[in-house]
Structure formats: structure tokens, C-alpha cells
């Protein structure tokens, strides 16, 4: 059970990191990027290919993120002057070009055969000392303490807002629902912290990767929060709302858009490295366009233009995705009670069922709360 939770944390954190890059591009700047998986592909393949040649993993990852940023620069220079719909078409086309290069250039990527047996971070740390385990658990604890403190501060602001709403209106559903989400996050955080601490005490490669990934995710989240609350971030929001106004105020809109595309691409490139390290084998079939749209689901679900919402969206999406894997067992149990219920479901139908249900949930969410769970409707001008 602990091993399963560790794997779930790794997948959730990887997609959260990947989606933070998309949220910077779309949620804060308004860039419609349907080819975000291209940055992950470049980051993953660059890191793996360089590490196989003996380049240290840290340097390989930095180079992978840099090349993903260069891809963002190349796409941005050629597409950011296009209208939004044309930008979306070009980006999804570019992602397919990157995937097809990985598929056909066998001299470089081994094509459909993929790349196995590449160096992994912390793989040599098979038997850490007691001191090392204590240090890793202390770091794990520090991350959750800081996250918990941020959550408590957020909930305190929600309680204050709830009090003001109650003084004006006897029906304040928004603040109440956010408080419920906050309480659920506290409970979930305690469960994940306990699972991670136990996994680190019984150290394995996956436990080490989990700690490294969550640490990087926390650092990226922290720096993004600083950036989007700075004057730079406020310019991005102004561009998202009305770039003509930003131009009238003397801002170089093209340059700001380019910066957001480059930085979001670099973040996705780092996520690609962790994606490869978690799978321990990569081939082009692992970088299909569906991954981009999973990131879009996460961003829209949690709240566009909200980094905390992106983390929440990743948790909810992967909790749903992992929960549905028990659907065949549930059908088996129901079949014993009601023979009309199908006795089993194959993988193809299970995948289709997952997509269908998440699509229906998104439709309901867009009707009830179009800005997402933690998004601000007034900020995104969705009510106009």
C-alpha cells in the first residue's frame, strides 16, 4: 500500500510540475498552447541521452530544461504574433513534429525501441545511513510544515471572508466550499506525509525520487508564486485580460509573452526528466498529445491562473484516475449481485470510460464554476 501511495505521489507531483508550466503560459498570460508535451519530450530525451553519455544528471537536466526553453523561444518568435486560434494549431503541430523526430531518428533516440537502462538519480543510495534517513525525513517534514502553514494562512483568510459574507448575505456558498476543500487538503496532506515518511524510513529508489521531485516542485511553486505576484506577473495578467491596453501603457507585449512561453517550457522540460526517471524507460509512445490535454484538465479543474489550484487539480485528477483502476473489481462484485452488470471491462474500454466521465465532470464544473475550484471569476473576466 505504501509503495502504491509513493507511486501516486510521484505521478501527481510530475503532472503538477508539468501543469505549472502550462498555467504560467495560459492561466497567467493567455497563451493557448496545445503542444505543451513537446517541452516534456525534449527535456526527457535530452536528460536521458546526455546521462547515458556520462554527463552528470544535474547538468543533463539543466541542459534539457534549457533546450526546452530554446524550443519555446523558437515557437514564440514564429507564432506569438499570430491570433490565439492559429497559435493553438501551430503548437499542437510542433508537438507532433517533435514526437515524430523521436520516433524516426533511430540513430539518436532508438526510435520505437526506446531507451532503457539509463542512469537514475539516487539509484546508488541503496542503503542510506540512519543519519541520511533522518535528514531525508526532516526535509520531507519541512516541506509539509511549510505547505501546512500556507494552507492555514489561506484558510484563515477564507474564514475572515466568510464572516464578512455572513454579515451581508446569509448564503455564502463560495467561502464555505473553499473551507471544505481546505479541510480535505489537510487530511490528505497528513495521509501523504505519513506514507512518505514511512517510505523514506524503509528507503527505496522510488522513495528517494519522490523526495527529490516534491522538493523541486516546492521550489518551483515558491518561485512562481513570487514571480506572478511581482510587477512582471501583473503585466502578464494585464496581457491576458487585454493586450492592447498593455501595449498602450508602453509594455513590450511580445517580449513578455515570449518570456512566459520560455519559462513554462523550461519547467515542462524539468518535469520531463522526472517523468523519464519514474518510468525508467522511454519511447515516443509515452509522449502523446493526450498528456497535454491531461495538463489542461488539471489547470482548468483546479482554477486557471492559480498555482495552488494547479496542485489541487493534479491531486484530484490522479486520485480519480487511480480510483477508477478498481472499476473491474467493482463490476465483478456488482455482477454477483446483479447479473445484468458486465462482469469485466478491458483496458481500452476502461480508458474510454475514464475520459468520458472526466469530460462530463468538466462540463458540470464549467456550468457551476467556470473559473475552476480555486480560480477567481472576477479576475478572469469570465462573468462578462
Write a brief structural summary.
The chain has 384 residues and is mainly α.
CATH class: Mainly Alpha
Radius of gyration computed on alpha carbons: 22 Å
Count up the domains. 1
- What CATH calls the topology is ABC transporter involved in vitamin B12 uptake, BtuC
Give the averaged pLDDT, no decimals: 84
- Report the structural category: mainly alpha
Corresponding CATH architecture:
Orthogonal Bundle
Helix content: over 70%
Strand order of the largest sheet: 1-2
- The total of beta strands comes to 2
Strand content: under 5%
Number of helices: 15
Overall geometry: globular
Largest sheet: 2 strands, antiparallel
Low-confidence residue ranges: none
Task: Determine the N-to-C terminus distance.
Answer: 47 Å
Write out key terms for the chains shown.
2 strands, 15 helices, ABC transporter involved in vitamin B12 uptake, BtuC, 384 residues, two-stranded antiparallel sheet, mainly alpha, 76% helix, 1% strand
Question: In words, what does this structure look like?
Answer:
The chain has a single domain (2-127, 203-368), classed as ABC transporter involved in vitamin B12 uptake, BtuC (Orthogonal Bundle), CATH 1.10.3470. It is 76% helix and 1% strand. It has helices at residues 2-28, 37-52, 57-79, 84-104, 106-109, 130-168, 173-201, 205-228, 231-241, 243-248, 253-279, 290-302, 307-323, 327-337, 347-368; strands spanning 115-116, 281-282. Helix 1 runs parallel beside helix 8 (205-228) and helix 2 (37-52) packs across helix 11. The model has no long low-confidence stretch (mean pLDDT 84).
Amino acid at each position: 500500500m505504501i509503495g502504491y501511495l509513493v507511486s501516486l505521489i510521484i505521478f501527481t507531483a510530475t503532472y503538477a510540475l508539468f501543469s505549472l508550466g502550462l498555467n504560467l503560459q495560459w492561466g497567467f498570460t493567455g497563451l493557448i498552447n496545445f503542444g505543451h508535451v513537446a517541452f516534456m519530450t525534449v527535456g526527457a530525451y535530452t536528460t536521458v541521452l546526455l546521462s547515458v553519455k556520462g554527463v552528470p544528471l544535474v547538468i543533463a537536466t539543466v541542459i534539457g530544461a534549457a533546450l526546452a526553453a530554446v524550443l519555446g523561444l523558437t515557437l514564440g518568435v514564429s507564432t506569438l504574433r499570430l491570433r490565439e486560434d492559429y497559435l493553438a494549431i501551430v503548437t499542437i503541430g510542433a508537438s507532433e513534429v517533435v514526437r515524430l523526430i523521436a520516433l524516426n531518428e533511430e540513430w539518436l533516440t532508438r526510435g520505437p525501441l526506446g531507451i532503457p537502462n539509463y542512469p537514475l538519480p539516487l539509484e546508488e543510495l541503496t542503503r542510506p545511513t540512519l543519519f541520511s534517513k533522518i535528514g531525508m525525513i526532516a526535509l520531507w517534514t519541512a516541506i509539509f510544515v511549510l505547505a501546512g502553514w500556507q494552507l492555514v494562512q489561506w484558510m484563515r483568510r477564507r474564514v475572515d471572508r466568510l464572516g464578512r459574507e455572513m454579515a451581508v448575505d446569509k448564503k455564502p456558498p463560495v467561502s464555505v466550499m473553499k473551507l471544505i476543500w481546505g479541510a480535505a487538503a489537510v487530511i490528505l496532506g497528513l495521509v501523504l506525509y505519513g506514507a512518505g515518511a514511512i517510505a523514506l524510513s524503509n528507503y527505496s529508489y522510488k522513495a528517494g525520487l519522490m523526495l527529490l521531485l516534491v522538493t523541486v516542485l516546492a521550489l518551483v511553486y515558491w518561485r512562481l508564486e513570487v514571480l506572478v505576484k511581482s510587477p512582471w506577473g501583473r503585466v502578464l495578467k494585464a496581457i491576458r485580460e487585454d493586450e492592447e491596453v498593455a501595449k498602450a501603457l508602453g509594455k513590450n507585449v511580445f517580449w513578455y509573452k515570449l518570456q512566459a512561453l520560455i519559462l513554462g517550457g523550461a519547467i515542462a522540460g524539468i518535469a520531463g526528466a522526472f517523468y523519464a526517471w519514474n518510468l525508467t524507460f522511454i519511447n515516443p509512445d509515452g509522449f502523446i498529445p493526450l498528456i497535454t490535454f491531461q495538463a489542461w484538465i488539471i489547470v482548468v479543474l483546479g482554477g486557471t491562473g492559480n498555482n495552488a489550484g494547479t496542485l489541487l487539480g493534479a491531486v484530484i485528477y490522479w486520485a480519480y484516475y487511480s480510483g477508477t483502476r478498481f472499476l473491474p473489481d467493482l463490476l465483478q462484485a456488482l455482477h454477483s449481485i446483479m447479473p445484468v452488470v458486465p462482469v469485466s471491462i478491458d483496458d481500452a474500454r476502461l480508458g474510454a470510460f475514464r475520459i468520458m466521465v472526466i469530460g462530463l465532470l468538466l462540463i458540470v464544473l464549467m456550468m457551476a464554476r467556470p473559473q475552476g475550484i480555486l480560480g477567481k471569476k472576477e479576475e478572469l473576466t469570465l462573468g462578462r
